[in-house]
Amino acid sequence: MSKMFLSRIKPSQVPSSSSPQLRKLVHDTIHILQTNHQWQNSLRTHFDQSDVLVSDVAHLVLDRVPSAQLGLKFFHWGSQSPHFRFSNGLAYSSLLKLLARSRAFSEIEPVMGNMRIEEIKPTLDALSLLVRAHADSGLVDKALEFYFKVVEMYGRVPSVVACNSLLEALVKRRRFDVARKVYGKMLTRVDGEIDHVDKYSTSIIVKALCKEGRIDEGRKLIEDRWGEGCVPDVPLYNTLIDGYCKKGDVGSAYALLEELKSKGFLPTLAGYGPVVDGFCKEGNFKMIDRLLAELKERGLINVDIYNNVIDTRYKHGCAVEAVVTVMEMVENNCEPDLKTYNILIAGSCRLGRLKEASQLLQLARKWGLMPDKFSYTPLLHAYCKQGEHSRALDILAEMTGKGAATDLGCYTALIHGLVVAQDVDMALTIREKMRDIGLVPDAQIYNVLINGVCKEGRLSDAKLLLDEMLDLDIPPNAFVYTTLVDGLIRNGNLEDTRKVFDLAIEKGIHLDAVAYNAMIKGFCKFGMMKDALLCMNKMREEHHFADDFTYSTIIDGYVKQRDMDGALKVFGNVVKTRGKANVVTYTALINGFCNRQDFRGAIKTFKEMQAHGLEPNVVTYSIFIRSFCKEGKLAEAAFFFELMLMNKCLPDKVTFHYLVNGFKDYTPGATPNRMEESEDNRKSMFLDFLEMMISDGWVPSTAAYNSILICLCQYGMVRTALQLRDKMISSGMFLDSVSFASLLHGLCMEERSQEWKNIIPCDLNEQELQAALKYSLKMDQYFCEGKTSKTTLILQSLVAGYKSSDQEVEV
């Protein structure tokens, strides 16, 4: 009778798993599986000669076998033999763990199916490993399935390591709600204790809360878990700090950084970095400098921090000494990288410091760095912008010579710069050079070129460029066709515009609202209002809804045709479909009323616009001023000028032109000092000073300029007043006593009384100073409610100085 048969009728004596005999048996079994071609027979003989059943050691073999393939081979051999049945779950569970470690996921379900048939329960360790393996491999739904199987079978959650893997996978896929439910289950007490959560579990959920912007909840969670497997450390604080910064609450992030230090922790770069970045986004250089000092002191500062700060300084217009900055970085053991130089080069170019940018390029090479297209392209742009096309071309040649990659972006930059500088011919030449080296321009470059030639009225060149695109099989995009349509319309070529527009539609180009608006603008320009409306209907059919520009263009078209009924009908449709029109639409309608001298209709529309919460713009006010001046309603023109200043709407040179021309023949007393159509009967400051100056001998046009200056300064628009002063001087006028007094008032109101001599130097004689003082006293009535202003005191001092010097001469 064989030993195997005897072992079946009496319990086998299984040695301890740590015994040399059993370790050798397991080792030999694995060796046979790996090396013996007749492994089945060898294994049968091997176990026949031992006193140990396969079922008793199968789990030990499967725990040590190096691959899933060998493990499955051994398991199937044992399970198919009539003499060896795996009656317990150890072998199955070890096989599951082997498959999980090997990521042999397709084999796991069949094994689980056999276990269900044989009513064998996997161990908690095996199921935990299945959860972890699936989660780590991104198979989150399967990991959850095994997670719930553990809960169902054992009434508890898998191991902490497995749960943490599942939490990480869920958070990575932003399944935050599920992650929090899993974490909540992990906190369930077993036998009165929580042993399924560690600090890492909590940090994962805190990270999830921070990603949701719920940083305060994450912080509270840490406080609630303090001491229960969770002692806050620097990484946990860094997670919260990063969360606050991403939410935009850099103040709370900085407070947490300070709290971290107060508790004896030393913050790391991972904590400082987000806070520095947050203050950079705010442009808070006081805090940036404070943090930089800390980082330098602790030797933590790195090149990324420096790059961020340098870029921020440029973006906020701060002075950056490029070479000094590079030297400072080197002194702080932080060697600048290519990104550093690229930021400095781009910043220097934006400031027009091209010599400095070129020096930085050379310095980068000196330090062994290879400049790339991001190093050269800002210089290309800058030289083109300054009209130094030969230097831009030299830069392009240098890029090629130094091995820096040149691509369409570089050539686009150069061509765009040349077009902006109005050197279209050179841009076209560059296009030819591109083709010579085998680099085919794209639709964007052709769009820039077509835009350039259209602006110069070179329509034949625009058509040639379009034909060239078609010959090269470069499909013109919507931007190209839109540019052509707009350019042709600007040059009054409606026939060709229609051809290009129809060609685009024929080619299946999905033209956008901009193209349709350009076409509508062309029809309106030629008074073809029916065609404009048909084009708008076609626009709707293409699912482009008419916008404010569309309606404003059509209303303006009707206005120019003196068809107010048509304009009002379209305006009614705007209000009906959109609820209200915009400022441009209202302004077009106001222009129509003013053109037919229906000022009551214009003012009614003006008030309706304001009632809808829309602020009139400079065009709106200028239309009123122009129209009232044209009709000799000068009090009304003055009223609207002061109203626009009161509403903080900056006038422009067109506004000033209308006013000066309107009042050039003004006669004091000829115009009532009130606004007839308005309920506002305030005294007009503009007319008050105008009449006073004309009575004192000023010519009306000069008096008008001075009245404008006085009003601008009264309403705090001193910068605009100074710009107008410069224009007056350039046109041959001089700074007289009234303009001097008004500008001095404006500067004093801005608390710049200490620097007035550098801005409006005084070369008035005593008589002119007396006149300035006279007008300053009158300005005090408006500016200071009758109180003596600082301006008046300054002028009194200047007059007294003249008198004192005269007395000295007499003596």
TrEMBL record:
Cross-referenced InterPro entries, in alphabetical order? Answer: PPR_rpt (IPR002885), TPR-like_helical_dom_sf (IPR011990)
Q: Where is the composition biased (Low complexity)?
A: 11-21
Gene3D superfamilies per record: Tetratricopeptide repeat domain
Can you say where the PPR repeats lie in this chain? Answer: 159-189, 198-232, 233-267, 337-371, 372-406, 407-441, 442-476, 477-511, 512-546, 547-581, 582-616, 617-651, 701-735
**Lineage top rank: taxon:** Eukaryota
Region annotation (Disordered) ranges: 1-21
Q: Describe the family membership recorded for this protein in Swiss-Prot or TrEMBL.
A: Belongs to the PPR family. P subfamily.
Can you say what this protein is called? Pentacotripeptide-repeat region of PRORP domain-containing protein
